[in-house]
Amino acid sequence: MTKNILETDGLTVTFGGLNANDSVDLAVPEGTFVGLIGPNGAGKTTFIDAITGYVGMSAGTATFDGEDIGALKPHERAGKGLIRTFQSLELFEDLSVRDNLLVAGYPTKWYTFILDMLHMTPKNQEIEERVDWALDILNLTDVADAMPTDLPHGRRKLVGVARALAAKPKLILLDEPAAGLDTTESTNLGRQLRTFLDHDMSVFLIDHDMGLVLSVCDYIYVLDFGQIIAQGTPAEIREDPAVKAAYLGEQAGEVQAQEADRIRESQQEEVPS
Amino acid sequence: MKELIIALIAGVGAGGLYAMLGAGLVVAFRGSGVINFAHGAVAAYAAYTFDELRENGDVYLPWFDPIPEFGFLKTLRINNLPVKLHLGEDPSTWLAVAVALLMSAFIGLLMHFLVFRPLRNAPTLGKVIGSVGVMLYLSSIIAVNFGGQNRADVGFGGFTTDSPAVEILGGTIPRSNFYLLAAAVVMGAAVWALYRFTRFGISTRAADENEKGAALLGYSPQFIAGANWVLASVLAGAAGVLFIHKTQPALFVLFVVPALGAALFGNLSSVPGATVGGLLIGIAASGGVELADKGWWPAWLPAEGVRNTVPLLVIILILYFRGDKLPIRGSISIGRQPRAPESNNVLIGLGVCVGIAILLSNIFVSSWEAILTTSLLATLFMFSLVVLVGYLGQISLVQFSLAGVAAFTMTRLAADGTKVRPNDFFVNTGWDLPDPLAALGAVIVATIVGLVVGIPALRIRGVQLAVVTLSAVIALEDILIRNTTLLGEGAKSTNPTPEPSWFGQYVGAFNPDTNRTDYWKYTAFLILAVSLVGVAVANLRRGAMGRKFLAVRANERAAAAAGIDVSKTKMLGFGISSAIAGIAGVLFAYKLPAVSSDNFSVFAGLALLAFAYLGGITTIGGAVIGGLLVAGGLSAETLGVHFEDIDVAYINAVGAIGLIINAIVTGGEGIAMLQTDQGKHILAGLRRDPTIAPPDSVLNLTQEEIQGDVEGALV
Amino acid sequence: MTDTATTTSSSAATGETLLDISNLSAGYSGVAVIRGVNLHIKSGEVVALLGPNGAGKTTTLLTVSGLLKALEGSVAVLGAPTTFGAPHKTARRGLAHVPEDRSLFFGLTVQENLKLGLRGSRSEQAAGYETALDLLPALKPLMGRRAGLLSGGEQQMLAMARALVGKPKLLLVDEMSLGLAPIIVERLLPIVRDIADNTGAGVLIVEQHVHLALEVADRAYVMSHGEIVLEGAAAELMERRDLLEASYLGGGLEEDA
Ligand SMILES: Nc1ncnc2c1ncn2[C@@H]1O[C@H](COP(=O)(O)OP(=O)(O)OP(=O)(O)O)[C@@H](O)[C@H]1O
Ligand SMILES: Nc1ncnc2c1ncn2[C@@H]1O[C@H](COP(=O)(O)OP(=O)(O)OP(=O)(O)O)[C@@H](O)[C@H]1O
Ligand SMILES: [Mg+2]
Ligand SMILES: [Mg+2]
Question: Is A150 within 8 Å of B695 when comparing Cβ atoms?
């Protein structure tokens, strides 16, 4: 059995009487792609908030890379390689796309500002390359010098993903990266996301685009009212009646999934030709 | 004990005033997100209007005749703007009250249409500067229209000096104090009900938070903002006429400080909170002064300081513990920030500026070194604002006081106890450190004080931070800079500057050998300092840490997710900025024969911030331009020589108008930005739609290229 | 250029024209990103505006409500031309626009947000409030919560509800299903259909879930690179997937036309 990069045990988050996360036990094995789905307001974003330190846990533990991270501050967790994106964009709006990524990638010490002032900060080749790679993989190279506010909504989301990639994650937590992408683009995104696994990281994905989630995840958890109501492989989840009733609906989820399947097929036909 | 209780009760009088003003500040803030520094000035104008009408039957409109009666202009008296209206010989009190309130409403409308509506999309700091401009303008107009004479209006109704006193515990308290309390509570309740129970109230909050959202729902953001300005100003005017029997109307201008404390108590958004806060501040202040009279009170802590600072400190603590280290989800964003491009060719730019400056001043004025060094000093100081306000986005009004702290510390550390100048009746005793060490020590002290003052910034953001740092200014001024016990009689007179000599070179502006001012070594020294600091600050922006500063400025939550320690970064920014302010303070002291608290007043600090903002708060070039603009600096003096016989109040009024116009024209980006590409778009954007963002590089691609990209992306 | 699949649409497309866009060009900083757009909506119609990312859908909607300036052409909403810079006037005539960024008031509670959307007499307001909440029951337990604290999907529902409480005559929804669970999308689309059928309102929805949108829409327009490249009855477009996909791929039009 591989080791779990992330593991939560009885994780509970309470907002004044409301249990947004209720004893959540969830594990992300190293090198795998795990999804989290669930109705609106189920507590998915709250789960990411809790393990990255943006809201406090009222009970339970969170272990990252073998270490209990419950007491760490958000930036300390990020420093350990637990990197998130935000559902609500939260980009650095007055930095260019490239600078957005560089902020995340560049290590600084307390004395860096002195080197900066003397214009002697060593250029970190590794990080510049990493940033270029992240821009490339998300197709943002052409807008590297643009301001995020000038991009259409879908691409702004991708800047958030690229920024997380640049920060050298061991586990990357993606909160609805495909929201606002059309089906073709989200299929492309899915393919890129799978390649993250080849770069020494694990991926945790939240999204409502079933075409994406069902096709890229190795394993899926389903959250409802803060509790896990189902877990399993995409095929199992797709057929699970409880998940259909709470989340997928009669046909909407299925339609999305099929549409994505079709696009993938048609693209596979095109590529060799 | 009994005296204390009596003093506490009597405090409701002043407390009532603060509460009324605080409620008005909340209304203005809710209506358009502006911290209205001019609120006290509006109250003052209304009070003067009331008094003038009762005394002489005249009403002065809130402007001055642009064709004044000076010099050759006298002969040109054509088409003068009406200023004075005569309303009859003996108008009734109630007419006077009504006219004063109408006048306030009128001023509110003017403020909305001429200042804050054009500034509605400006960064937070731009709005702050706009209101500072209005405050300066109204103060000068008051000086022009009503003159400086004392007014001792007896008031009206129950609000009079001669209303019989109430006896409590054997002491007496003026009856009008209780009327003021009642007025504050009634006004607060009425405004609260208006916001609580009408659609107008909710839509006010909505429109301020998200103008687009409100407009899409059918609310006119402009109408809402305008109505709130009128309401806020009428509240100010009412406070002015009700309090006129207590003090000189001119003092109202300054009451905006405790009133801001009151508004902060209500989180800038709750009228009941502001009312309670105002009353508490009044009560605490009155009690504090009573205590400070006691024998056991430490002599080094002046009563004045206690009165002004203790209540504010309490409020800061409350705000601090209410705040979060990182903004929680869905917090209202603190608003747009001016762009912060990298500066290149700093030295060349600086050289050119200094060259032009020398040339200009040589032609126009005789004592050009004095003026040039004023500009250079201002620029040096503004570098500290570039780091803190420009890069890091923390609006701090306290930096100039830190320069003051450094200046005083330096005189103390370097003094050898021997130097006595003819005018000094205070003989300095000090540590007798070598000058470079004394300077270093002073900068370190300023940095430490700056770090302490910066602590609230860890949890308080945006305009709230601006107000909090303003109270820090008052505290530093009262407790430190004006403190005769700590700094010697210097508070009233001066602290002699030691004759500074660095490594054998005399670097002061005053030459003791010739007993005359002799600028050149000083100027060279200053240019060296400005260049070094300027280059360092410009480099900071280009480096890895500078990028993190901008990231924190843009979005603290995202910054933490990118692994940035937001608290440490803010502290670092406060440290760097305070050190630079300290350097500027020391060099300023070197220019003066002696340092006095008057050199570091609140208003001087505000003015410097305003000019830094106008120059461009995010760039080195902006600081250079800001330095040229300051009063006593090159532009002002060069222009000023031609108008020597004009009343200074006129010049101030014109300056204030310039400030406002500038704030509007530069769209919050500063003059330095106007020459850049982005600046051109700002100018273009002003003429067009405010929602239009500058063009992006994507759009500059040709259609084929876009097509190619899309296809490329799909394979 | 435009590929028109001509049919008469299923339902009451015979009413008055609520939205009439003709030959519209608009964009940012004077550079047009949409060109020559013609689009109209009649009373009782649901019209889908489709197209890949960056096609110009949002830009079109912003111009309709007067947030962006038309560079060329004209927009008439509910019989009167829109005035740029005064979106509140258009809104008062009965236009509701749910913008892409939602423009919720984060500092206000859910209830206050909804209140601001109300229009008309007291009884009309009460009725509007009731219906909107019946349609989106998930909001009911959230009334006292600050809108900024809501989850992404809850915010989306609030934005929809805030537009619906005012009983608009013309409803524009940008990215309606953004961040919504599939089951909610599945419920919301028929609701939109019902509103058009029952109140005679015109509805324009921008949607990424093409097939779900086409199921409820009467007609659809497909945009690509700032131009309308395809329009027709929803039912026909469903049949012609090849055409649809071609326009999404950005190429292919020329061969088909
Ligand atoms: N600080 C808070 N205070 C009170 N309630 C909160 C707070 N933060 C979140 N909530 C509530 O907790 C619930 C869970 O929110 P969360 O954002 O985790 O949902 P989600 O599963 O991500 O939903 P979506 O798919 O719509 O994004 C929601 O009902 C939300 O309103
Ligand atoms: N504020 C802006 N400034 C400059 N260009 C912009 C701005 N907003 C959008 N654009 C450009 O206009 C074009 C059309 O954008 P628009 O947002 O209308 O597309 P869309 O069809 O709504 O896309 P999406 O489905 O991604 O929301 C894009 O190329 C985009 O880059
Ligand atoms: Mg979420
Ligand atoms: Mg869009």
Answer: yes
Secondary structure element (H or E) that encloses residue B250, with its range:
none
A86 interfaces chain C, CB cutoff of 8 Å = no
Give domain limits for chain A.
1-81+169-273, 93-168
Whether the Cβ atoms of residue A227 and residue A10 lie closer than 8 Å to each other: no
Angle of CA points A171, A173, A176, to nearest 5°: 155
Q: What does the DSSP assignment read for B464-502?
A: HHHHHHHHHHHHIIIIIIT-HHHHGGGGTS-EEPP--EE
Distance (angstroms) between ligand 2 centre and the Cα of C27 equals 9
**Matching residue, tokens 């935000």:** A86
In this structure, the answer to whether residues C121 and C15 fall within a common structural domain is no
- pLDDT tens-place string over residues B206-238: 998 898 999 999 999 999 999 999 999 999 999
Residues whose beta carbon lies within 6 Å of some atom of ligand 2? A 150-154, 180; B 693, 695-696, 698-699; C 28, 33, 51, 53-59
CA-CA distance, A105 to A167, in Å (whole number)?
Answer: 5
Who's near A216: CB < 8 A, 6+ residues apart? A33, A35, A190, A193, A194, A205
DSSP, res B75: G
With a cut of 70, list the residues of chain A below it in pLDDT: 1, 269-273
Domain that holds residue B295: 2-325
Q: Per the structure block, which two tokens stand in for B67?
A: 């064709």
Pocket test for ligand 2, best of C29, C31, C58 (most atoms within 8 A of CB): C58
> Nearest residue CA, atom 7 of ligand 2?
A150
In this prediction, what percent of chain B has a pLDDT beyond 90?
33
The pTM (predicted TM-score) of the whole model is: 0.88
The residue whose C-alpha atom lies closest to atom 18 belonging to ligand 2 is C56
Would you call C183 and A39 a contact, using CB atoms and an 8 Å cutoff?
yes
CA–CA separation, B151 and B146 (whole Å): 10
- Displacement of CA A84 from its chain's centroid (Å): 6
C-contacting residues of A 90-149, CB under 8 Å? Answer: none
What count of other Cβ atoms lies within 10 Å of the Cβ of residue B347?
12
The parent domain of residue C228 ranges over 3-94+169-247
- Give distance in angstroms: CA of B674 to centre of ligand 3: 41
For residue B383, tell me if it sits in a domain.
Answer: yes
CATH architecture of A1-81+169-273: 3-Layer(aba) Sandwich (3.40)
B421-443 per-residue burial string, b: 16 or more CB within 10 A, e: under 16: eeebebebebeebebeebbbbbb
Question: Lowest-pLDDT range, A226-235, B502-511, C36-45?
Answer: B502-511
The answer to whether B710 contacts chain A (CB < 8 Å) is no
Q: Do B546 and A116 touch (CB under 8 A)?
A: yes
Instruction: Indicate if C157 and C173 belong to the same structural domain.
Output: no
Considering its fold, how many domains does chain B have in total? 2
| Residue C243 in domain | yes
Choose one of C123, C151, C167: the last residue of a domain: C167
Q: Does ligand 1 lie within 6 Å of residue A113's CB atom?
A: no
Indicate if C163 and C119 belong to the same structural domain: yes
pLDDT of residue B139: 87
